[in-house]
Amino acid sequence: MYDTHALRAAFARSLSAMYGTEVPAYTTLVEVSTAVNSDHLAAHPDTAERLGRIDRVTAERHGAIRVGTASELRRVAQVFAALGMEPVGFYDLRGDAATSLPIVSTAFRPTTPEALAINPFRVFTSVLVTDDRRYFDAKLTHELDAFLGCRELFDDAVVELAARAEADGGLPDADAEEFLRRATACFELSDEPVDRRWYDKLAEISGVAADIGGVTTTHINHLTPRVLDIDDLYARMTALGITMIDEIQGPPRWEGPDVLLRQTSFKALAERRRFREPDGSVVDGTLSVRFGEVEQRGIALTRAGRDRYDRMLAEVDARSAGLTPEQRNDVKLDVWRTHLPVTEQGLADAGLAYFTYSVTPGAEAGGGTGPVGDTTTLSELVASGVLERTPIVYEDFLPRSAAGIFASNLDSSGSRDASREGSARDEAWLAEAMGRPVHDPLALYAAQQEASIEAAAAALGTTIIKES
User: Fold this and answer.
1) How many folded domains does the chain comprise?
2) Among 82, 292, 287, which Cα is nearest to 190's?
3) Cα gap 131→283, rounded to integer Å
4) Among candidate residues 274, 229, 45, 72, the one with its CA nearest the CA of residue 159
5) Is the pLDDT higher at 256 or at 408?
6) Is residue 310 part of a domain?
7) What keyword terms does UniProt attach to this protein (predicted)?
8) Considering the entire predicted model, what is its pTM?
9) Domain presence at residue 450
10) 330: how many CB neighbours lie within 10 A of its CB?
11) 74 in the Ramachandran plot: left (φ > 0), alpha (ψ -120 to 50) or beta?
């Protein structure tokens, strides 16, 4: 019997093996990531595992896929539900920036600390907004919807097996192996000829729209390992002659705590594809849509922390217009040093980040270094050594960084009529499309923090007051 967690781990391995055969540079990326993690642990044995054990970090992956319709989204949500992966967060990648893309997204992932510790596989999943008039006129929307309506990305057999796995908490060995085989095949790159005229028509608007709606299947767009030092990874990949995008997305490298998420990738590679020409002939060609992304995860920020982060990015934008990526990074550093506490203690005191709290061994029996009365504050218990504070890892994504990664791997910025109105998409639409609730990531982190405080208070027999 494969339980839910075993299915998720097996699927992540299967997908990784398949993707490595399709994109050999991904295997190189994994090898370099593993070396970076090993070297970082050796150089920083006291701090390297502050945000996760090395075995989890090195095994960790997130994938990205793209679908075209609400129906396709509902079916893939069922596949991921079999793996214990639930939709978390709503990301609108349209917006007003040059990196705007005609998609909205969510991330399927485990939602409990226990499940994440077993296997933290995530899939960032985007759906095309075919009726957004900034990108598609009414005629093209009709053509696009008709094209998407004629394809089947996830057949009935894999969806039915997934539903059984969700209901039963797993599958017997033979059924599990059949499900894993079929589910992996859903994301393989197809050798079916691509209609050149139709694909190019969509690509003039958006390379992402063409990648989703210009073909009859879906595929893994990228599979992402996690590293402990993304700057080292960037330098090593460049030294191997692999072309990286211009900059690392997200926060800068600095002397303070890593927060949220830093991401980069190697540029999308030209992959052999077959094309059907207007005269009906089939010829060989290439497409450059898949790339290799890598991530470095930091501490999850509270709502106040995210608000501050957004204001900091706005300041970086205002001060770095027209600057090179290197100059922009210098601006980021200055903004970070001005506005963000340089220690975890400072983040906690300001209520900017999430942490868990556990009783120091022996403290519950009166062995702590500070007194525990009927009522005490969280900061006093940490300062006296009665409680240990551990940062909660940010398990989710940043819409601006995701859009930046996607856009950096497109051949052109496409076209968009900003004078037109976009169509409504929000978390409620996403939930209705899938028939499943969408979790608020901040609520998940807050609940994890609160549960740890309640458990610590019970173990100590006291009431803990939270100052922020």
Assistant:
1) 1
2) 287
3) 32
4) 72
5) 256
6) no
7) Dioxygenase, Iron, Oxidoreductase
8) 0.93
9) no
10) 14
11) alpha
Tally of CA atoms within 13 A in the half-sphere of 297 that contains its CB: 24
CATH number at residue 246: 3.10.180.80
Q: Please work out, in degrees rounded to the nearest 5, the angle formed at the alpha carbon of residue 105 by the alpha carbons of 78 and 79.
A: 15
Cβ proximity of 141 and 155 under 8 Å: no
Say if strands 271-276 and 2-3 run parallel, antiparallel, or are unpaired: unpaired
pLDDT tens for each residue of 173-189 = 999 999 999 999 999 99
Over range 300-319, report the average pLDDT.
95
Mean pLDDT, the chain, as a whole number?
91
Long-range contacts of 94-97 (CB under 8 A, 24+ apart): 94/129, 94/132, 94/134, 94/422, 95/399, 95/403, 96/418, 97/400, 97/403
Domain annotation covers residue 387: no
At 229, list the tokens: 């030092």
Burial class (CB in 10 A: 0-12, 13-18, 19+), 401: buried
The domain in which residue 155 lies consists of 2-300+398-437
Per residue in 45-102, pLDDT (tens digit) is: 999 999 999 999 999 999 999 999 999 999 999 999 999 999 999 999 987 665 578 9
Residue 392: is its pLDDT beyond 80?
A: yes
Establish if 141 belongs to a structural domain.
yes
Neighbours of 170 (CB within 10 A): 20
49-58, 145-154, 286-295: segment of lowest average pLDDT? 286-295
CA 226, 267, 282, 414 dihedral sign is positive
* Helix (H), strand (E) counts: the chain: 18, 16
DSSP 118-153: H---EEEEEEE-TT-TTT--HHHHHHHHHHHHT--S
**For 25-36, what is each residue's pLDDT tens digit?**
888 899 999 999
Q: Which of 305, 271, 322, 273 is nearest to 449 (CA)?
A: 305
Indicate the residue type of 151: R
